[in-house]
Task: inverse folding
């Protein structure tokens, strides 16, 4: 009988990434392998579709895919999806008419590709109706027969076996598998969990794993416990919460963990539920579709897991433990507070004895060092909210006791606005509108100071410059002393100028 403490290396499970590939995504595979090398991950879980195997391009695809992956990483193939022609009904989640067909498929895969993997995972999320339509197998008889035959044959062929991850984690379903004798054929049990994304009644990882372990102990079974799929969707721009979910997962008392996923789902592709039926499916990656890294990936790639853990601990205890409650002390709120201006402003205010709340999403590389410096200088006197200005619910909370607001947050590059004008407008214009709307809802809104840019005046071609040592300055002495006259007409000639000018108009 195994306790949680007896699980090998419980605080640091073997860590891998989960990425699904569609047939023909050769460039995507190379991209994944390159990024896995960047974050020093050597384990990859991926799907091998039984249904795709039966398509015209299926054999050629897997003939290329599995050897290519195995040259770089340890592969965990997850064999799933019934060919519609073999199902009770014509869909990939249907039970096969003959359960032995699946075992035969596993035999073919091991014969053809067995040298490229040590473990095989049989099916995916069987208690999720999108992956196994249990309405067509209400007593689970077909599934149990299929699993026992496939797992027996895989072990006979020298492979270790993983029972497909439950989603949601369901001890009653696991008990049924034990009663049917299925688990005796498996070397590891997979579980899935998405706290903060899909799990509305989520308990801590340790609680869920303890419930699973209790079932295994009851039947005197000692398979390894793996989290074969977990992740966090940043559809609400809460990248710090993705980082925290990751840290909670890698602290779980399991033997192995696969994080889902490296990349956001391409917006032109359908998810399992359909085309944009559920927007959360499109934002589970560590990297956005425009190849820009999210907070977790950036820290992981540049400083390893130590950097991720460091930022995970940087928030003050008050805001981290009670994120739903407003900050009670009257404070100065600085959005974009981890930037150059925000950091120096915060230092000045804190040195004068004022209470300060910094809000920043840490999207600009290196600004986390500014937070460390402020913490070294002022300790817990500075309250830190690592969040995005587009999260209007968080803005409502941090504004509750703000006596003044310095709005410095924004996307700051013209070049970025040309590459991704939508993001630029969402951050600068919509983010500011969120802030103003939340302030407007307050009984007594605090005063606000915001930073703009000379880009709202266009190219300023009539302002002549001269070089002064290492910088350029206007030749006109009045402009040099006082800046651009406020009577100058606005000229939003770039997406950046437009987004910044929008909130000048909103506040004007």
Result:
């Amino acid at each position: 009988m195994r306790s949680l403490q007896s699980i090998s290396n419980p605080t640091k499970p073997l860590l891998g990434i989960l990425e699904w590939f569609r047939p023909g995504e050769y460039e995507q595979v190379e991209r994944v392998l390159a990024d896995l090398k960047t974050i020093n991950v050597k384990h990859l879980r991926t799907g091998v579709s039984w249904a795709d195997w039966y398509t015209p391009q299926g054999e050629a695809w897997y003939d290329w895919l599995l050897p290519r992956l195995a040259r770089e990483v340890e592969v965990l193939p997850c064999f799933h999806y019934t060919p519609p022609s073999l199902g009770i009904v014509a869909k990939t989640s249907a039970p096969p008419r003959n359960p032995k067909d699946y075992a035969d498929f596993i035999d073919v895969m091991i014969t053809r590709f067995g040298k490229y993997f040590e473990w095989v995972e049989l099916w995916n999320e069987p208690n999720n109706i999108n992956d196994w339509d249990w309405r067509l197998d209400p007593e689970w008889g077909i599934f149990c027969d299929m699993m026992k035959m496939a797992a027996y044959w895989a072990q006979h062929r020298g492979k270790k076996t993983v029972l497909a991850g439950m989603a949601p984690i369901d001890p009653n379903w696991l008990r049924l598998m034990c009663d049917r004798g299925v688990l005796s054929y498996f070397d590891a049990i997979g579980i899935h969990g998405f706290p903060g994304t899909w799990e509305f009644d989520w308990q801590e990882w340790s609680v869920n794993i303890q419930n699973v372990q209790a079932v295994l102990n009851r039947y005197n079974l000692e398979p390894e416990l793996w989290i074969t799929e977990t992740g966090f969707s940043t559809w609400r721009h809460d990248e710090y919460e993705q980082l925290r979910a990751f840290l909670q997962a890698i602290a779980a008392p399991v033997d192995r963990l696969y994080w889902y996923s490296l990349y956001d789902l391409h917006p032109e592709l359908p998810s399992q539920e359909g085309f944009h039926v559920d927007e959360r499916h499109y934002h589970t990656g560590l990297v956005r579709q425009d190849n820009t890294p999210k907070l977790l990936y950036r820290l992981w790639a540049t400083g390893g897991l130590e950097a991720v853990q460091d930022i995970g601990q940087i928030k003050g205890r008050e805001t981290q433990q009670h994120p739903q409650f407003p900050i009670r002390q009257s404070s100065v709120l600085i959005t974009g507070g981890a930037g150059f201006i925000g950091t120096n402003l915060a230092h000045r205010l804190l040195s004068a004895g004022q209470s300060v709340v910094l809000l920043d999403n840490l999207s600009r590389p290196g600004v986390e060092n500014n937070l460390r410096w402020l913490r070294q200088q002022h300790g817990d006197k500075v309250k830190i909210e690592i969040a995005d200005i587009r999260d209007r619910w968080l803005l409502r909370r941090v504004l509750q006791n703000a006596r003044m607001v310095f709005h410095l947050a924004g996307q700051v590059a013209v070049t970025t606005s040309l590459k991704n004008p939508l993001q630029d407008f969402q951050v600068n214009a919509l983010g500011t509108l969120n802030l103003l709307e939340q302030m407007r809802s307050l009984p007594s809104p605090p005063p606000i100071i915001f930073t703009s840019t000379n880009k709202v005046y266009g190219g300023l071609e009539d302002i002549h410059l001269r070089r002064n040592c290492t910088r350029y300055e206007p030749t006109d002495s009045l402009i040099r002393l006082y800046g651009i006259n406020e009577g100058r007409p606005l000229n939003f000639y770039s997406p950046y100028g437009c987004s910044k000018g929008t909130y000048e108009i909103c506040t004007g």
Q: What stands out?
A: The longest strand covers residues 43-49. Confidence is low (pLDDT under 50) at residues 4-10, 316-325. The radius of gyration is 27 Å. The first helix runs from residue 26 to 38.
